[in-house]
User: What shape does this take?
Amino acid sequence: MSGVIKRRDFLKVAGVSGAGATLTACNTGEVEKLLPYVVPPEDITPGVATWYTTVCGECAAGCGVWARTREGRAVKLEGNRGHPISQGALCQRGQSSLQGLYNPDRYAGPMLREGGVLQAVTWDEAETLFAQRLEAAGSNVLLITGHTGPTLSGLFDRFLAGLGGRRIEYEALSEAPLREAARIVFGQDVLPHYQFSDAQLIVSFGADFLDTWLSPVEYGRGFARATAVTGAGTKGQFVAVTPRLSLTGLNADEWLPIAPGAESAVALAMASVVAESGGGGAGPYEEILEAYTPEEAARLSGLAPEVIRRLAERFVSEGPSLAIGPGVAGHHRNATAANLAVLVLNAVAGNVGQTLQLDGWAGQRARPYTELQQAMQGSGAGEHVVMVHGSNPAYTLPAASGFREAFQQAAFRVSFASAPDETAELADLILPDLHYLESWGDSNPRPSIYAVQQPVMRPVPMFDGKQTGDIVLSLSARLGRDIGAATFHDYLRSAWDELRMSVPAEQAAGGTGDAWWRGVLKSGVLRTTTDQVSATPALRAPESALSFDPPELDGENGDYTLIVYPSARLYDGRFANRPWLAELPDPVAKIAWHAWVEMHPDDADRIGARNGDVVRVASPHGSLQAPLLRYPGIRPGAVAISMGGGHTAMGRFADGNGVNPMTLLPAAVEQPSGALVYMATKVTVEPTGVWQRMATIEGADDQRGRPIASAVELAALSVVSESASPEADDPGKEEHTAAEHEELQELNLGGGFVPVPTDGGPEAYPLPGSQYGEYAGAHEMPRWAMAIDMEKCTGCSACVVACQAENNVPWVGEEMVAMGRSMAWIRLERYYEIIDATHAGPLDVRLLPMLCQHCGNAPCEPVCPVFASYHTPDGINAQVYNRCVGTRYCANNCPYKVRVFNWYTYTDVPEPMNWQYNPDVTIREDGVMEKCSFCVQRIREVENRAALEGGRPVADGEVVPACQQTCSAEAIVFGNIRDPKSRVAQVVANERTYRVLDEFINTQPAVSYLKKVTFHPVAAGH
Amino acid sequence: MATAVEVKEPRGAVPHPDITAHSDVNRDVLAILGRPGFGWWALFALAASGVALMFGSWGWQLYRGMGVAGITKPVGWGVYITTFVFWVGIAHSGTLVSAILFLFRAPWRQSIYRAAEAMTVFAVMTAGLFPLIHVGRAWLAYWLFPYPNSRFLWPNFRSPLVWDVFAVTTYFTVSATFFYLGTIPDLAAARERASGLRKKFYQITSLGWRGTDREWHHFGKAYIYLAALATPLVLSVHSVVSWDFAMAIVPGWHATIFAPYFVAGAIFSGMAMVITLTIPLRKVFGLEAYLTTKHYDAMAKLVMLTGLIVLYAYLTEFFMAWYSGEEIERTAFWERLFGSYWWAAWVMLVCNGIVPLTLWFKRVRHSIPALFVISIFINIGMWFERYVIIVVSQHKEYVPFAWGVYRPSIVEMSILLGSFAWFGFWFLLFTRLLPPVAIAELKEVLPAPMRRRTHDG
Assistant: This one.
């Protein structure tokens, strides 16, 4: 046979090889293996989420959490609706916990410092060494912890009691002065608990109860309820008496810009007016009240006496009222006195036992700074072992405190930090704890409330951590002091079995221990007894004389009082390594990533500084440089810097970002509480001549009268209890509308115009001529819609982070944000309408969450050349990512500017941060446009579930987008607006309803806003 | 006896009084196609490196992502679209000169139309790159074309960008065909003188042209039909480009005046570019006899006319913004003049509105250096006009909180520069490969060789 290839053979070979080449070319370059489970784990159904209850471990507030897990990975946190503190909501910091869990900078395992370098060791080696050092140290053992749950605290104390050691709980943002004041005045060592929802006039002397103060989620909800408009046409008022407006302050109806440190004087003057006009007796404080007349307070605070007197009168007449202390930013050298003055004001106004309750809440057990300092002073001697758990004093204390030096003198330093921080960086031995989402624990935020913290997933495998409770138990065993539990879980179980005995019978029901325990795990919370409201105690005199005058400040030659305030994003700095929070624009300044110095525009003019001019801020204790922000919400004569920046050893996202204002502070101690003083010094501010493009999302703070964030005066609202709106009774108006309508119809037939229904009620849908009607069968579909009540929205920005977590929205970094490339799907806009730092008067700041409006006549849809921007039959303005070519025409044509573009592929995040990605949502690559989808994955999930459950209709309220879910103010309502019985339809049927820019450009948005309600007249068009 | 018959010269007078013989035309024009000198090579090297810079920058952008450009939110269209519109505008005058002026029998067009047409084709080639450079996923840009596919997915015919695709591709096809058709007799003329590889090139491209009556007849018919076809395109393509903006609701874009405004601007900028290009061309290649002040005078008049239309459009826009009473509209135009980009608007107004007014003076129209300088001003001004319309309008739209500032990045500027190099690259090749002045048509307007001669003299 010759070597000739026959034609048929050739065709066969060519065909087969051609087909083979084609088939092998049909992959994406990467071979991915899909392997099924050999033994499927329990609780895991691929594609179906499993939810676990737990407790947020980020601050002492103790909010309940529902953790959503998919295929064994935690992907989203939501508030536990059954939890009495969070009531279903979470704050922006709680939402970001997943980035703590998947922090790529977490310690990979136990490490020992040898020759100055951390070396990995095994757990056995580490614990053996640790046990040896503890034995050598004898009773010279000090444990510094942050806020810890009751069982772990108990275990620590039991362990240390065996050793003869001591535990100090230190939190930078503790309310020691408030607690001390309460102890002095009421004789009870508890923090007061505030019933915001019962108050009708709230006066805050600076406490940022919506940002960071004590329990912001709980108080945020209470505040929103207090200030909501009632059917009777009333609403609660909020007066901010503070030199600087925090986010909380921006929500005030009135602002009394007082001189820093004048809170005591104003509170006492108010109390004296109240007492004079027949309020409760001031008891031992009568003399003090006499000294602080409104005139005296006016002299100290810079307000007019009538302003103080008037507010005091209203404090009684417009009650129930509530006054709240200065908060952490107001911790000056007389902070206890200031808190005491506010408590006295509440007492004389009769608020104690009403809006202010002494129900024994010891929620923050943290000890004051002095105790830490004293304990550390002894730690240099001998074989002292100092352990740190959940606290970072090397960062949160001023350099002058000497903590670093004292810590470094200790013979052996152990850190239980799961991720690096400045204190762990000084430690000899690092025994990384598990993240709270991986470990057992509990919380006891109030005496009657207990909640279990259970692991929601197996520990992230790349980090070989161990729960500190387990380490303590293992050490006890090694030291021959067996506590009698093999694991912390067992220990916790036995502790809770004891707790069960104290539970009311109806809750303890549920059978034997295990069944009961499962029930507790399922609900996540246990109420032991009902809240005990103690009788109003008589006022007690202070043991020692207190000064109520403005405090002494360091730096006499400084021009500006320095206000150091807790960050609504980074708290005391602990969250700095979380890109979600670092990139979350500050709710007040709207700046992300870097630090800024707030200064009143008048002062800034005096030193000739524009926004972004880098200034040098110097105190007698140190100096720093940061760009200046001209902030109209700060009193002239003060400058403010946020806590939380300037980390040196916290991880890739934190280090080098911002400045740490602690460098400007002395290690001053407030007496008698022993707290660290934050308002301690005056500073000088001078421009450096350098300008920095700030990473701000704010284009302009003035809405120029455009109907974007609108408001209406309370008096202009019709009272619901009266008959229907007065306009309907005006026949002239009716006729006019009908005539107009006809004319518009004619125009409409001509193809050029669509009448805009003025009411946003459900009968308006489908809107005539809108795209809604273009789709076949559309009338059977729901029209998804959202209502946002600007009266309730506090601008806290929790929704922004929740949305990022839910929708895999990337972060982009400081440089990108500075260029305007922030990717967040929700932009919390902040417009100043009335803000005057020089006089007491009304304050009107509009806070508006702007997201895709899902327009009925969406300008983005017709311009997309490839139908990537597409209108679904159920009214969602969808963005088809894999169809998008990236012309950005839709973004240009979007009047709301809510479309964001992937300038790079931002989603290649360091392992294991990608574990957080929601598997229900596509990851976007570069060159693709994206925007709010109304959480379409949640809508489809609910619809699918309803279809599986016998094709039942989707119930109202079943679909909850991530933003609505986390909103503590309950400002967002979502649902099918075509169902007149749905909540959203009912909320929208309100005279305050408007749709942004709709009257101008006829976009017919699915998002309706409810106007903010003010007490002052609002100019037309606003 | 000199019994010369007085022959009345055709209307419009002899445009080229210095050229007497048809053979001169061949000689002068084809001399350009000889061996290039050092200057040409230097320019060519410069252009080639500019092209390399552009493609390098684009490659970097494709590799790293769109983020290397400075465009951002809210300014999603920046230098790329500005430059796209600029080049589409430049592309206008070529067809205007060759087609419309042909149909109107304007005698001064013959010596410039070849260069103008070449400019058109190369400008569209340049412009056509920019939508590709601009889109986020350039590798999927073919989705904008309506091609049959298994998913029955079509482009969105409501989108002005799809109209744009049609307008620009049609314009390119027709203007390239028109350009090529016009060169065929000249290619044949070049074929007769060339040798070697060049001869091969001309042999193929001249499509066997022999210059028979029949060929001339067909040529003339085809030319006039194509001219008739191209004429509406001059108006349509830039109208469609203008609708990219006018159809959007961006304040400063959404105006009914846009189509005529853009067409006038396009002719304005295109004529300015013709002046800019032909002045050095005539100098370098010694074509002063073919491109006379008479031609420049005519072009300058056209520039002046269109410039006045453009100025009128500017003033109308500002007036309408004020007259509308709309705060949003007013703010947009106030910001245009006095906002972050005030300098761009003033560059535009001065270069396009004020400078061309000097063309009222005949002395200026007849001064070649003055025209060159003015045309450069107009080129700059027209680029800034698009920058002002596109960028400045976007940076402050409806929602003040979302206002923002755009700064072009180094990559965008490299690509902008590179686009001029890319254009120059082709134009330089053109000057060496194709007769830059239309030989055949020029001969038509020359006096017949024997005219004015008597049989005895």
